[in-house]
Predict the structure.
Amino acid sequence: MVALRYRIAGRAMRLWWRVARPRTFGVRALLTEAAGRIALVRHHYIHGWYLPGGGVDKRESAEDAIRRELIEEVGLADVAIAGLLGVYHNRSQAKDDHVMVFVAHVADPATLRAADPREIAEASWFAPDALPEGTSPATRRRIAEHRAGRQGHGAW
């Protein structure tokens, strides 16, 4: 029932974005573990697999936001931020969104979980060459940039 409310809220937000066209600021984490696997999440309110992350709140730094999102989405607080993969411009959902993608590492991959089951349907580790069906195109591009050792920028 709660997941249904998240889906309805997600649809309402996308409708509001079409009308208001807000400028937003978001963060994502390309989170790895020792074997090189990458953490992805599947939300209840949108189809596909994505890098964990979300919006930056007012008076919150981007680093504080990604640390908060990693706790809220995948239950990980002990994460080492290695750097910034890139800054991207996303206009895919009728909003003007800038997204910072951090590269991060976790020592204990066993603790990855869907921390908020109302929002996150599933959280799992995947080998970068064996991503699940439904991985978003932008997520695939970010992973390819990381694997090629390139810093990214431009369109999401």
Notes: Residues 131 and 140 are 8 Å apart (CA to CA). The first strand starts at residue 23 and ends at 32.
